[in-house]
Automatic annotation (TrEMBL):
Keyword tags: Dioxygenase, Metal-binding, Oxidoreductase
Keyword hit for Oxidoreductase: yes
PANTHER family attached to this UniProt entry: LIPOXYGENASE
MF GO annotations: metal ion binding; oxidoreductase activity, acting on single donors with incorporation of molecular oxygen, incorporation of two atoms of oxygen
Pfam families reported in the protein's UniProt record: Lipoxygenase
Biological processes annotated in GO: lipid oxidation
Annotated protein name in UniProt: Lipoxygenase domain-containing protein
Amino acid sequence: MVMFTCSAQHAAVNSGQIDIYGWLPNGPSTMQEPPPTKKKTANEATIMKTLPGYYTADCILATLQLLSKQASDSIFLPDFKREYFTEKIPCENIRIFQEKLNKLSEEIQERNKGLDLPYTYLDPKQVENSVSI
């Protein structure tokens, strides 16, 4: 559970923040007016009054960009650059796990070929093996 939370779940929640919330109406982190309380009362003018001003929007976008950016020293799930184990059974299990991750990555890449907006956040080759900010 810890490994999943610190790798795949974190990637699913964190990596696409700029893609999703970069257009502020998708999920503004601050609102200047309360949300409408009755259906069909919102219009372009009320939405524009509700959205944050330029300075606040710029701060939000800068934060999203920073949080979505991969670290320069990222290590991804299939990569085991350090040799923590030398025993036969753990090394074999790591090799099998890497094969499964690479196969899953290939399947995801194949599925994404036909999509206008590919979902890459859970491709093992793009999921960091830990949380890094």
